[in-house]
């Protein structure tokens, strides 16, 4: 198997790679048969918005073609990203967001043929290396009906992240790493679409 190399892309380079990134997204999140075109176009619209966000940063894994990517950007100081948070935000999270020190890990995806090789962990580490004093957040799909966490949540937990709570019922702007398309909405207990995970800065 080809060796996987990591490289950081500028905003301009990310825009030039948009089609290749969309191809990775369609393959990594392969969902309902026949929906690839719709999923791809929807993702491209989101990606175009993400690239324009403050402090957008991106790392890709390359193995004779893109094998995965991770990217994110600053959460707005206004706190709009937290508008659907279920519960009360901890004071330190509110403070870090208001001071512009909260970074959203908006996407982390790896092609099936390169999974379970530490590629996702390497990309996340490279992307977030500059953010040692900042709060990093991500939203992932909620556990399934049997209470089983998805792959993204298990990975974040293994990297030392903490589950903060739920967002929902709609997907938040720039919804973060996930492992399958779609979300679950409704009313009553547990009616939220996403889990929020955070990596607090060291004290």
* Strand elements, count: 8
Strands ordered across the widest β-sheet: 1-2-3-5-6-8-7-4
SSE string, helices as H and strands as E = EHHHEEEHEHEHEE
Termini separation: 41 Å
The parts where pLDDT drops under 50 for at least 5 residues are 178-191
Sheet of most strands: 8 strands, mixed
The DSSP helix count reads 6
Mean residue pLDDT: 83
- As a whole number of angstroms, the C-alpha radius of gyration is 16 Å
Which structural class should the secondary elements be placed in? alpha+beta
Per the principal axes of the C-alpha atoms, what is the gross shape?
Answer: globular
Relative helix content: 25-40%
The portion of residues forming beta strands comes to 15-25%
Tell me briefly what this model is:
Helices cover 29% and strands 25% of the residues. With 203 residues, it is of the alpha+beta class.
Q: What can you tell me about this protein's structure?
A:
By secondary structure, the chain is of the alpha+beta class. 29% of the residues lie in helices and 25% in strands. It has six helices and eight strands. An eight-stranded mixed sheet has the order 1-2-3-5-6-8-7-4, with helices on both faces. Helix 2 (18-28) crosses helix 3 (36-51). The longest helix is centred in the first third of the chain and has 16 residues, at 36-51. The termini are far apart.
């Amino acid at each position: 198997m080809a060796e996987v190399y990591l490289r950081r892309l500028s905003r301009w380079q990310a825009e030039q790679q948009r089609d290749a990134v969309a191809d990775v997204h369609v393959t990594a999140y392969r969902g309902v048969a026949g929906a690839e075109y719709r999923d791809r176009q929807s993702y491209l619209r989101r990606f175009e918005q993400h690239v324009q966000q403050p402090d957008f940063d991106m790392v890709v894994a390359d193995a004779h073609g893109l094998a995965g990517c991770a990217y994110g950007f600053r959460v707005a100081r206004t706190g709009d990203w937290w508008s659907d948070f279920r519960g009360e935000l901890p004071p330190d999270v509110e403070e870090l967001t208001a001071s512009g020190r909260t970074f959203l890990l908006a996407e982390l995806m790896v092609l099936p043929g390169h999974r379970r090789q530490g590629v996702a962990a390497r990309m996340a580490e490279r992307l977030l290396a500059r953010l040692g004093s900042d709060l990093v957040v991500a939203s992932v799909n909620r556990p399934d009906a049997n209470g089983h966490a998805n792959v993204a949540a298990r990975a974040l937990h293994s990297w030392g992240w903490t589950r903060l709570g739920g967002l929902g019922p709609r997907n938040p702007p720039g919804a973060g790493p996930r492992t399958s398309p779609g979300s679950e909405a409704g009313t009553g207990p547990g009616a939220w679409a996403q889990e929020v995970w955070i990596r607090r800065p060291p004290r």
